[in-house]
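Encode chain A's predicted structure.
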Amino acid sequence: MPLEISRNVSIPDNEIELIAVRAQGAGGQNVNKVSSAIHLRFDIRASSLHPGFKEKLLALSDKRITRDGIVVIKSQEHRTQELNREAALSRLRQLIKPVLYGDKPRRPTKPTRSAKRKRVDQKTKHGQKKRLRGRIDD
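Encoded structure for chain A:
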């Protein structure tokens, strides 16, 4: 079943490599015996994504993306392999999704009349405070 990123974009399973490895750290017998952690590898350049999306992904300054354009995600926060697999796929989805939509165009706004008045009043008040700190002439 392909990984759904949005309604129009999905990644086929054969482009995502999931490897089960042993989790690190303390945890007793379960950690030492069971390969419950997941290493996810996704090659951006070899993927079926649109070329524009690939460029944007490769331009991201994310430590999970190697110089070769491979996304490496390790998930080991859950006790079961299945939950770690879902967590890794979710992180990949979260990495790719913002690239699809781009930035929302900025609409310039104007300050309200009361905001302008408040700003000028604050400046005047601040200036008076500074003037009072000045030297007293005899």
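Residues 81-101 form the longest helix (21 residues).
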